[in-house]
């Protein structure tokens, strides 16, 4: 573990009062630093928190905004559950895949956008909806998706998940 990472981990543990409570913020920090939660980050988290490597990996895999593979700076997650399906999500998903040139879980060839189809985002009354990094967008039509995509291409993305 690098000294900087160890120092950050100790700061987070002190702020959250124990290693287990500091696990997610520490993994968020590692993701911001490395672009995703690397195997080394999982090892470091286990060392810092006192959890087993398996426990750390299991917890990390539960959260849809922690990624254990390289991802783009922009993460687009389109809801595929019933209310959104009824509201046009099938058309939106097909359009998004075609525009980005990826399938579910894929990252564009330039490494900028990662695209996922996810379960209910709890905004069923505004279907279809999607999440871009930490921001929700509602009633998204294919035309609105195109507008958002152009906007995202021209802006510096916020972190997919902030460390604190
Ligand atoms: S079904 Fe899409 S947000 Fe609930």
Report the mean per-residue pLDDT as an integer. Answer: 93
Shape: elongated
Bound ligands, each once: FE2/S2 (inorganic) cluster
Largest sheet: 4 strands, mixed
**Low-pLDDT segments:** none
Which structural category fits the helices and strands?
alpha+beta
Structure description:
A 4-stranded mixed beta sheet has the order 2-1-3-4, covered by helices on one side. By secondary structure, the protein is of the alpha+beta class. It has helices spanning 3-16, 19-34, 39-49, 53-62, 82-86, 89-100, 142-153, and strands at residues 74-79, 113-118, 130-132, 135-137. The two termini are 20 Å apart. A hairpin with a 2-residue loop joins strand 3 (130-132) and strand 4 (135-137). The protein binds FE2/S2 (inorganic) cluster.
Short description, anyone?
The chain is of the alpha+beta class. It contains seven helices and four strands.
Name its key features.
elongated, four-stranded mixed sheet, binds FE2/S2 (inorganic) cluster, single chain, 49% helix, alpha+beta, 164 residues
List the topology elements.
Layout: H1 3-16, H2 19-34, H3 39-49, H4 53-62, E1 74-79, H5 82-86, H6 89-100, E2 113-118, E3 130-132, E4 135-137, H7 142-153
Parallel strand pairs: 1-2
Antiparallel strand pairs: 1-3, 3-4
Helix pairs in contact: 1-2, 1-3, 2-3, 3-4
The chain binds FE2/S2 (inorganic) cluster.
């Amino acid at each position: 573990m690098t000294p900087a990472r160890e120092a950050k981990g100790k700061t987070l543990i002190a702020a959250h009062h124990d290693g287990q409570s500091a696990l997610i913020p520490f993994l968020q920090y590692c993701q911001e630093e490395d672009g995703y939660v690397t195997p080394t980050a999982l090892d470091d988290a286990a060392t810092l928190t006192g959890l087993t490597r398996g426990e750390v990996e299991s917890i990390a895999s539960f959260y849809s905004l922690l990624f254990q593979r390289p991802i783009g700076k922009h993460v687009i997650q389109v809801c595929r559950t019933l209310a959104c399906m009824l509201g046009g999500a099938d058309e939106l998903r097909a359009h998004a895949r075609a525009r980005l040139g990826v399938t579910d879980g894929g990252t564009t060839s330039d490494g900028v956008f990662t695209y996922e189809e996810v379960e209910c985002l709890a905004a069923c009354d505004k279907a279809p909806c999607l999440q871009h990094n930490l921001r929700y967008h509602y009633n998204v039509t294919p035309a609105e998706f195109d507008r958002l995509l152009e906007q995202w291409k021209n802006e510096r993305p916020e972190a997919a998940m902030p460390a604190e």
